[in-house]
Design the sequence.
């Protein structure tokens, strides 16, 4: 497709405004906005797409503010031409038609001519829809005739001839070729001379007048090389090769195809570079498009509201008349209503008091859950940490069943705390799904390995079956998905002995980018009685519990049901007592290769450094100090421990550290206040909050205090050092992740 024709046409239609001065950016005049449209067109002609799009968007915003349909149409025309040059055809058509809808409201036939010509080009050469494209071309010719625009008519008729020849309709295209041959010398249009000679060559090739065709093609090649018209020269080589094939000169045909391919490769590489330079700007323009649509919808709603105002007034008059007629009845019932109103007031007061008490109870419940989780996680950090220290320092205890039981019990208690917090967050609508790239097979196999302890204790085997049609990388909230699978599989393992648990994932359908995957969790365990099947998703319900069994908290399936609701999904089950149970649910994950590659490329490599970090530990709990110090020193790093915020500020006056581990809940001066004072001293050392508080509760306050990241106790040492590496070697971040 000859993109140069669009650029010439667009530039020619706007060149009359090239000498208009730019007004103050705060209060731009119409002339200033016109100048912006010319600048945007000039940048487009220079292939400076990012600058052209930014300038056109600015002009569009000012034009919308002025409610100037003509300027809006010009801005959309330039934006669409940018996207066509970048081969984003859907966006180009959208913005061209958007511009045409505004242009049709004006008396400016020049912009109507330009938009119809450009849309015709897209339909004929990009969307392969000749009839639709010719319709737009004919409209463009009508407007050219109205404004006596010989240059515009010339370019449009050249495009029509090219479109017909491109489809093999040479008889339909000949009148337009005759027109451009007649008027080419009058206009002395050097930019289109290559294309004109090529079209003559195509026409005479079709008539089998090979000598004439050969002459025109050779002239087109010479002019294309002289003028560096690479886009048009590309098509000349292709059509000339077709002529040589018909003549039987296969060697020369091959040489011209080689030249065609070499130019095509250069242009394709150039197009790739163009697209690379505008990455991210598309998203911004899409967002801007949505804002513009919102403004337009608001304007339309206002128009509808005004149109209905008369009806509303009439209805109001009728209603008022009805009210007057009912006054007598109202007077008769006045005393009765007063009595009922008094009763309603008393009832409303009671309801208000009950509402306040319910809100206070809900707040107290949330506060209690937060407090109890903090109070439990702090000693759990000590239990898990000391257990790990014992195993590290006394290898002879590695097989001790007592230590294994202690470690298991601590982790079970931690799971209980996390389950209570999870159900509390869901009830308060505090969970928002994230969009992360992940590998479904890797996540499921990781869960399988992590649950191997429970599987072995019940002498079970876990089988995994993944549909090969599922893409390697999906986009969704992998953390919530993992929680669902972990709860489902662990539940199946606990109610199965000497059996199997099967995890199946099958791709059932695709809608746009959404891939709907059906998951089945099957076991051949004890099964669930039919009368109990509706109860198992309720909180704290445990079916068939025996005193000697380990049945958990009764929250797992309730959490699964609530999390699936966040995914707009439901869960079903089939079960027979003594034969096993099958749970089925479907989740839609997005698959976008381009977005996936962007997310994967942004993932930072987990750096491992041989450097010895110097770490400052700020914690008032002696046991936590001991455990954190041991973890740091075990990884060949140096540490200093202080037990208060004041002590931390004092030691930072004389010593420098690579990282600071900050407890939050400390007496006199908590971790937030300590970090604020550290930042006020100009110290930029990364600070990691190591706390038992839930991350979502403190993220906002931590960010405002200057804390770089948060780690929840108890934690795995590898998480601590991965976070340290990211802060010391990764890109600087201004927000908590």
Sequence:
């Amino acid at each position: 497709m000859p993109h140069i024709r669009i650029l010439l046409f667009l530039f020619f239609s706007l060149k009359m405004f090239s000498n208009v001065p730019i007004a103050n950016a705060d209060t731009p005049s119409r002339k200033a906005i016109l100048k912006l449209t010319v600048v945007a067109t000039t940048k487009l002609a220079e292939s400076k797409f990012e600058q052209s799009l930014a300038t056109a968007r600015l002009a569009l915003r000012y034009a919308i503010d002025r409610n100037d349909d003509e300027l809006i149409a010009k801005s959309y025309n330039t934006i669409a031409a940018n996207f066509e040059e970048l081969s984003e055809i859907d966006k180009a058509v959208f913005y061209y038609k958007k511009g045409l809808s505004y242009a049709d409201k004006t008396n400016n036939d020049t912009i109507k001519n330009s938009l119809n010509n450009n849309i015709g080009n897209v339909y004929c050469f990009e969307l392969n829809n000749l009839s639709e494209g010719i319709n737009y071309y004919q409209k463009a010719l009508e407007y050219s005739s109205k404004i006596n625009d010989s240059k515009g008519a010339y370019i449009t008729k050249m495009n029509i001839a090219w479109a017909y020849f491109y489809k093999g309709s040479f008889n339909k295209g000949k009148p337009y070729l005759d027109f451009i041959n007649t008027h080419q010398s009058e206009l002395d249009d050097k930019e289109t001379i290559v294309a004109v000679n090529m079209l003559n060559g195509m026409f005479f090739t079709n008539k089998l007048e090979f000598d004439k065709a050969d002459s025109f093609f050779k002239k087109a090649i010479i002019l294309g090389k002289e003028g560096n018209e690479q886009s048009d020269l590309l098509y000349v080589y292709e059509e000339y090769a077709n002529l040589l094939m018909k003549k039987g000169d296969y060697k020369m045909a091959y040489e011209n195809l080689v030249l065609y391919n070499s130019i095509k490769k250069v242009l394709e590489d150039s197009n790739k570079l163009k697209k690379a330079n505008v990455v991210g700007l598309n998203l911004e323009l899409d967002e801007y498009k949505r804002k513009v649509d919102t403004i337009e919808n608001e304007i339309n709603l206002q128009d509808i509201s005004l149109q209905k105002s008369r009806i509303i007034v009439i209805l109001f008059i009728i209603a008022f008349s009805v009210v007057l007629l009912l006054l007598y009845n109202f007077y008769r019932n006045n005393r009765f209503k007063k009595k009922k109103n008094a009763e309603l007031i008393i009832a409303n007061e009671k309801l208000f008091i009950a509402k306040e008490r319910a809100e206070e109870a809900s707040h107290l419940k949330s506060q209690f859950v937060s407090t109890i989780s903090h109070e439990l996680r702090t000693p759990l950090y000590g239990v898990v940490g000391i257990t790990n220290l014992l195993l590290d320092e006394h290898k002879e205890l590695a097989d001790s069943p007592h230590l294994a039981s202690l470690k298991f019990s601590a982790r079970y208690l931690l799971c209980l705390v996390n389950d209570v917090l999870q159900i509390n967050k869901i009830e308060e609508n505090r969970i928002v799904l994230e969009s992360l790239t992940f590998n479904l097979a890797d996540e499921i196999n990781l869960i399988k390995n992590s649950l191997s302890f429970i599987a072995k204790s019940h002498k079970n085997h876990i089988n995994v079956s993944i549909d090969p049609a599922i893409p390697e990388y999906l986009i969704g909230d992998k953390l919530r998905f993992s929680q669902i699978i972990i709860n489902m599989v662990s539940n199946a393992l606990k109610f199965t002995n000497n059996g199997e648990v099967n995890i199946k994932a099958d791709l059932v359908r695709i809608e746009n980018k959404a891939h709907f995957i059906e998951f089945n969790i099957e076991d051949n365990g004890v099964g669930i009685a039919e009368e109990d099947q509706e109860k198992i998703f309720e909180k704290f319900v445990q079916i068939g519990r025996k005193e000697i069994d380990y049945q958990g908290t009764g929250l797992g399936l309730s959490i699964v049901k609530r999390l699936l609701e966040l995914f707009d999904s439901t869960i079903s089950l089939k079960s027979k007592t003594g034969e096993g149970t099958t749970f089925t649910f479907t989740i839609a994950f997005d698959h976008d290769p381009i977005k996936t590659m962007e997310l994967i490329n942004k993932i930072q490599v987990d750096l491992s450094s041989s450097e010895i970090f110097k770490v400052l530990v700020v914690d008032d709990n002696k046991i936590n100090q001991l455990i954190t110090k041991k973890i740091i020193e075990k990884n060949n790093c140096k540490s200093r421990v202080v037990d208060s915020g004041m002590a931390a500020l004092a030691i930072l006056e004389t010593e420098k550290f690579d990282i600071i581990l900050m407890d939050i809940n400390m007496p006199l001066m908590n971790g937030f206040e300590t970090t604020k004072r550290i930042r006020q001293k100009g110290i930029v050392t990364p600070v990691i909050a190591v706390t038992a508080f839930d991350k979502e509760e403190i993220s906002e306050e931590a960010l405002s205090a200057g804390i770089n990241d948060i780690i929840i106790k108890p934690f795995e040492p590898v998480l601590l050092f991965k976070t340290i590496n990211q802060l010391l070697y990764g890109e600087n971040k201004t927000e908590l992740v």
Notes: The two ends are 46 Å apart (CA to CA). Residues 15-25, 544-553, 604-609, 731-735 have pLDDT under 50 and may be disordered. The longest strand covers residues 500-511. The chain has four domains: 3-189, 333-430, 436-602, 614-729.
